[in-house]
Amino acid sequence: MLFASKVAWIFKSYGHENISLVDGGFDSWKRHGFDVSTEDVKLPVGNWKAEDEFKKFVITFQELDAKKEGEEKQYIEKTSEINFLDSRIRAQFEGTQDTGLDPYMVNGCRIAGFKNLPSSELLTKEGTLKSEEEIKSWLTKNGYVENQPVVTSCNAGIQAALLAYVIDTVKPSSTPPRVYNGSLKEMELRAPKKISEGPQHLH
């Protein structure tokens, strides 16, 4: 479901509203005995027009790095006001498993103040989403704060998309989560000192 959720979030960013994910992905579809085919799918040409909704669903490095006039903190530093959520597995967040960050560039394994809500923990052993109540309880347990803006990140914006999609589903809001597409790989290149919390990343 990871890559499917990324594609779904891209469609949202282009203004597409009628989007659903197959719970459990293709494996679940086959496991339930639904029809599959190897035939090429030929769809008629449609008339859908894309709209630019990127600012609603995606946040850029420039926005994270920005500081409004008269304010002391950059947006990324407002960790008490915004749900900054790192969706990597806990071992990567804690620096005990390598994620490809350059230890000569960064001094930690995560961005300071970000909370760890691994997208992998949204799923059952069968790969389907846990119940809505389980997910809501899990969000609260892991530091999610109601009525605060949400920014999700990971290594390269894919795990972050699944977390954002699920939060948008179980906690619908007029201000949906925003995915930081560049995530840690972009931060490593543009502002490596921001990756400063936790033990130095594994080589």
TrEMBL record:
<keyword id="KW-0677">Repeat</keyword>
<keyword id="KW-0808">Transferase</keyword>
<dbReference type="GO" id="GO:0016783">
    <property type="term" value="F:sulfurtransferase activity"/>
</dbReference>
<feature type="domain" description="Rhodanese">
    <location>
        <begin position="78"/>
        <end position="196"/>
    </location>
</feature>
<dbReference type="InterPro" id="IPR036873">
    <property type="entry name" value="Rhodanese-like_dom_sf"/>
</dbReference>
<dbReference type="InterPro" id="IPR001763">
    <property type="entry name" value="Rhodanese-like_dom"/>
</dbReference>
<protein>
    <submittedName>
        <fullName>Protein CBG23257</fullName>
    </submittedName>
</protein>
<dbReference type="InterPro" id="IPR045078">
    <property type="entry name" value="TST/MPST-like"/>
</dbReference>
<feature type="domain" description="Rhodanese">
    <location>
        <begin position="4"/>
        <end position="38"/>
    </location>
</feature>
